[in-house]
Write a sequence for this structure.
């Protein structure tokens, strides 16, 4: 009998211990900022929004010349047109997101306490279409990216502040699941997001300068030269990028706007709290 | 079953005999090194250049140390092979994929890569 | 008499070979089922790998097409090439098992900076 109690106790304990990292969102952000500040004392925190282009003069010059003639202006115009086009049932996007398009981007990602899940901008765009009987956009590129990019452009300069309500254990659990995802090695090549975008950021993998995770989400959707060359245009959402970064370590990628990537975004976007939205932007 | 089992063995013996005649040991090793280099540079195989500088490579990364003076760094070739096979054994946080353990390369491919890297 | 023993020999041989084929097919089917189970387990743990059975994977060649490892196993089995079918089913199973172990091993991953 004693033995049984002991076993039950041990099981209870091992469940209760939970994640080995009992740090809060605020502590995680502070630690990451301090880590990068120590590595690059000459780079100001606000310059982290420019990713690899703050770290390499060569890359920066190329990037600036691309930005002189942004390749995505026409697609932003399509995004605006989408905002102004009512659904077939007569409703508008405002019925889901409110009237002011400049207030939308920066509300995401957020915790939906009623449905107990993380909501993302693109996830809610699709949800809004379904609720209004519209054919939803494809999840990762095309119109969803144009529309999301235009909404983001309306929010430029606003300070990112992803909120994880500390008094809601489910919200904290979703954030922690995202953090675990970010730091877990995966795939046949056994690499974590953090391996490339924290510990080795600033170094080169082949010709790619690995960008630091702080500042990652400030400029999405991005126009990527590589995506533009692979057929279609260069726009892609954050979850498209997640899929690519999972796949290149030979891990199975997850569904865009599903639970895994939404939780990941919850954590990942938190790591840019305090920086400003600068979207869309060009990336190699 | 018996025939199936014996045939490959016989073929091996014949092949070994033939290759033994036609190429002395030294050049067999050179061939292995050349094969190892090919695998190391191949993006779909070893892809070592992603992280390491290697003489003769292009567009090389700098995540791992340059692969030079390997004989001095690894007097024991078996230790080098063990690291390539599964570096996580020595360092669970390593960036280096466990090429053998996770089957990125086959055992014979790892033999060739070890031979090549040890020659650097 | 000679002819007769020849016929017997052929008959014995062909029975022998076809029983090899049957044994191979059974071994393949068993491995295939194990590979599916191993990858289902990895998937449930969030640790499945890209090429084990991913629909978009272009990892192994069968005929003039490239596909995932498990799809290659199926492709070779359909051609009756059980050596390759077994080899790839085994590889897919191994990936599933490794992916699962990796996910378990990384369950408590977090910052170390």
């Amino acid at each position: 009998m004693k033995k049984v109690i002991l076993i039950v106790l041990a099981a209870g304990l091992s469940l209760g211990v939970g994640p080995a990292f009992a740090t809060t969102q605020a502590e995680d952000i502070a630690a990451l900022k301090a880590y990068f500040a120590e590595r690059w004392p000459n780079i100001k925190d606000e310059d982290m929004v420019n990713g690899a282009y703050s770290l390499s003069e060569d890359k920066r010059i190329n990037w600036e010349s691309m930005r002189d003639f942004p390749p995505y202006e026409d697609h932003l115009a399509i995004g605006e047109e989408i905002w102004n086009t009512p659904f077939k049932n007569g409703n508008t996007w405002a019925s889901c997101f409110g009237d002011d398009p400049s207030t939308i981007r920066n509300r995401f990602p957020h915790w939906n306490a009623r449905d107990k899940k993380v909501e993302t901008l693109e996830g809610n765009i699709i949800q809004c279409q379904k609720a209004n009987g519209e054919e939803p956009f494809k999840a990762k590129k095309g119109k969803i990216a144009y529309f999301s990019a235009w909404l983001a452009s309306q929010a430029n300069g606003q300070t990112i502040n992803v909120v994880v309500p500390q008094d809601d254990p489910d919200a904290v659990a979703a954030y922690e699941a995202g953090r675990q995802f970010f730091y877990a090695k995966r795939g046949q090549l056994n690499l974590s997001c953090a391996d490339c975008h924290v510990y080795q950021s600033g170094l080169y993998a082949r010709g790619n300068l690995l960008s630091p995770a702080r500042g990652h989400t400030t400029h999405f959707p991005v126009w990527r030269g590589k995506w533009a060359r692979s057929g279609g245009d260069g726009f892609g959402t954050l979850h498209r990028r997640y899929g690519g970064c999972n796949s290149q370590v030979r891990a199975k990628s997850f569904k865009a706007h599903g639970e895994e990537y939404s939780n990941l975004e919850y954590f990942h976007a938190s790591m840019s709290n305090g920086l400003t939205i600068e979207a869309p932007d060009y990336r190699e | 079953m018996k025939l199936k089992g014996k045939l490959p063995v016989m073929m091996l013996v014949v092949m070994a005999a033939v290759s033994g005649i036609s190429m002395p040991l030294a050049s067999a090793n050179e061939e292995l090194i050349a094969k190892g280099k090919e695998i190391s540079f191949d993006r779909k195989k070893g892809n070592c250049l992603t992280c390491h500088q290697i003489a003769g490579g292009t567009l090389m990364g700098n995540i791992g140390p340059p692969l030079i003076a390997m004989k001095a760094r690894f007097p024991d070739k078996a230790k080098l092979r063990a690291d390539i096979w599964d570096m996580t054994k020595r360092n669970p946080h390593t960036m280096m994929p466990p090429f053998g353990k996770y089957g990125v390369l086959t055992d014979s491919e790892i033999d060739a890569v070890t031979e090549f890297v040890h020659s650097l | 008499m000679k002819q007769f023993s020849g016929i017997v020999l052929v008959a014995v041989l062909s029975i022998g070979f076809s029983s090899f084929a049957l044994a191979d097919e059974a071994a393949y089917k068993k491995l295939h089922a194990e590979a599916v189970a191993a990858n289902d387990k990895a998937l449930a743990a969030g640790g499945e790998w890209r090429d084990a059975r991913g629909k978009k994977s272009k990892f192994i060649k069968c005929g003039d097409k490239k596909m995932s490892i498990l799809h290659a196993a199926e492709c070779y089995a359909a051609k009756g090439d059980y050596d390759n079918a077994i080899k790839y089913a085994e590889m897919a199973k191994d990936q599933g098992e490794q992916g699962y172990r990796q996910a378990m091993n990384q369950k408590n991953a977090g910052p170390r900076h």
About this structure: Chain C has a mean pLDDT of 88. The longest strand of chain C covers residues 60-62. DSSP finds four helices and two strands in chain C. Chain C has one domain: 23-105.
